[in-house]
Amino acid sequence: MNLEDVAQQAGVSTATVSRVVNNQGVVRKSTRIRVLKVIEELKYSPNLHARALAGSIRMIGLVVSNLENPFFLDIFHHLEIAAHNQGYEVLIANTCYDRERLQSSVRMMLGRRPSGMAMIVSEMEEGLLDELLERKIRTVVYDVSPPRAGITTIRTNYKRGMQRIVEYLHSLGHRRVAFIGHHPSLGPLNDRQRVFVEVMESYQGGVEFRVATSDDSFAGGRQAVRDLFEGFRPTAIVCVNDFIALGVLRQLRDMGLRVPQDVSVSGFDNIMLSEMAYPALTTAHIPRDFIGKQILDGVIGGNVPDANSSKDTLIEPELLVRDSTGSAPV
Q1: What is the phi-psi region of residue 89: left when phi exceeds 0, alpha when psi lies from -120 to 50, beta otherwise?
Q2: Are 137 and 299 in contact (CB under 8 A)?
Q3: What backbone phi and psi angles, to 5 degrees, belong to 283?
Q4: Cβ contacts of residue 324 below 8 Å, gap of 6+?
Q5: Would the CA dihedral through 244, 247, 252, 255 be positive or negative?
Q6: Which residues pair with 243 in a beta bridge?
Q7: What is the three-class DSSP state of 120?
Q8: CA 164, CA 46: separation in Å to the nearest integer?
Q9: CA 77 to CA 43: how far, in whole Å?
Q10: Cβ atoms of residues 192 and 199 within 8 Å
């Protein structure tokens, strides 16, 4: 199966197929979808391996949702160091939370004949995992799949982590609390928002809360605060991650509000910048170095699940209390 076969069946030029496969150039969305469908039907992968160094490079494919978010960059950093020590290179791709980009990035990497694939994403197509299993590609996924045979899964207990944050803020007297998230239609992100709502509702009166969503970015955090304060004045803001929380801290400061005297702020992930922020950010620690090691073990280690078994790791977040949270204002 080659690029010409895909082009013929999709009714497009080989140049168009090449642009779709490599995520380059401008292709209409309808055309891209049609080409990706044919690629999936024909199980086509570009033979980039033949154009590389004749198999002399051992490679691990890593696909992440947002490289602007330091959480994903940290995982790549730890994986790359560990992989390099074992003689492997890491090829990374960024999806921007787009399922189409996820599929095309994975297929591009498959063309390089990787030793294994890792997907640290919130957007996932189950059919993609089925295809990787069919191809016998060692695969590691984070947060987007329940344990399944042949796949190494790494999950975070977001329910317990979010409970600890909300319960801690409640113990400080906060009764008007907001949650800021992003991409709520994606399971792992919606889980954190859902738990926040469940915990707040469990207090059965005496509390008020709001939920806001924006982009997974520093600017997204700033915009979400502006949107919230148009009709609600929280004494505490819980953020889905530290990246957004940094924008929240800046926006509150620009509005003349003090943290934590006027508004407490918490994040999630414990990226390095959270400790360097002013004030230092209360957050839940997710060990990215451990995740990087688990990825490497799942791709090249001896303890790799076979077709009849699975390997599942559950991470328990640790609450780190810093200067950005304090007692609710009187």
Answers
A1: beta
A2: no
A3: -160, 180
A4: 245, 249, 259, 260, 264, 265, 266, 277, 279, 280, 281, 282
A5: negative
A6: none
A7: strand
A8: 47
A9: 31
A10: no
Out of 27-31, 111-115, 120-124, 142-146, least confident range = 142-146
190-223 tens-digit pLDDT: 889 999 999 999 998 889 999 999 999 999 999 9
Helix, strand, coil tally for the chain in percent (to 5): 45, 20, 40
Q: What is the pTM of this model?
A: 0.82
Instruction: Report the sign of the C-alpha dihedral through residues 79, 80, 81, 85, in that order.
Output: positive
Name the pairing type of β-strands 208-213 and 311-315.
Answer: unpaired
Question: 140: closest CA among 108, 104, 116?
Answer: 116
Cβ contact 270:321 at 8 Å:
no
Domains and CATH numbers, the chain: 1-44 (1.10.260.40), 52-156+289-315 (3.40.50.2300), 158-285 (3.40.50.2300)
HEC profile for 215-241? CCCHHHHHHHHHHHCCCCCCCEEEECC
Is omega for the bond preceding 70 within 30 degrees of 0, making it cis? no
> Helix (H) and strand (E) counts for the chain?
12, 12
Is residue 56 scored above 50 in pLDDT?
no
Q: Which amino acid is at 136?
A: K
Token pair in block for residue 3: 């690029």
> Which residue bears the tokens 């929380």?
245
